[in-house]
Amino acid sequence: MMFERFTKDARAVVRGAVGQCESSGARTVGPEHLLLALLDHEASRGSFALTALGLTAERRESVRRALEEVRRRAGLSRADADALAGLGIDVSEIVSRVEEVHGVGAMSGDRRDKGSWTGRPGFGRDAKDVLEKSLRIALAHRDRHIGDEHRLLALTARPGPSAETLADHGVTHASLTRVVYGGGEAQTG
Length: 189
Prior knowledge:
Blueprint lengths: L7 H17 L3 E2 L1 H10 L4 H8 L4 H16 L5 H9 L4 H12 L19 E2 L1 H16 L7 H10 L3 H8 L4 H9 L8
Parallel strand pairs: 1-2
Helix pairs in contact: 1-2, 1-8, 2-8, 3-8, 4-9, 7-8, 8-10
Keywords: Repeat
InterPro entries: Clp_N_dom_sf, Clp_R_N
Protein name: Peptidase
């Protein structure tokens, strides 16, 4: 695979994402675990970029809380919830009813009380897509190695809850590209 092209920081983010996944009780690493690992990582290009865009420690906690709300909605983005609302389905009402019966967080997919599975979590398709997209972004910018900043750029380039949450906190693909690369944006197919 491309793991040998990862910088030390990028490898730390991947390991951190596995840790985030394990601590949540999930069986599969998703983009949200990569984002949580990025938020925890310090003194790296990705961390400096987040800080430059105003994502202070306090605002990073706000991102964590927003991601927790997404997990409570079974990973549905606001756009997904709005689309379902257009069909007359109230996601908040469904979450409330499920949590009344099964407890808070029941729709998150966490497996804390679901048997004794002890395997290492694998990377889900969406997380693999983020890793592949980070490679394409690095190549498009002619970067020799894949850093945690490329992971962050990939998360903001893909539609979904992670990109939506970051955008709500002022971190978009365009703003992040300007901070990381100083303006010009390469094509990232």
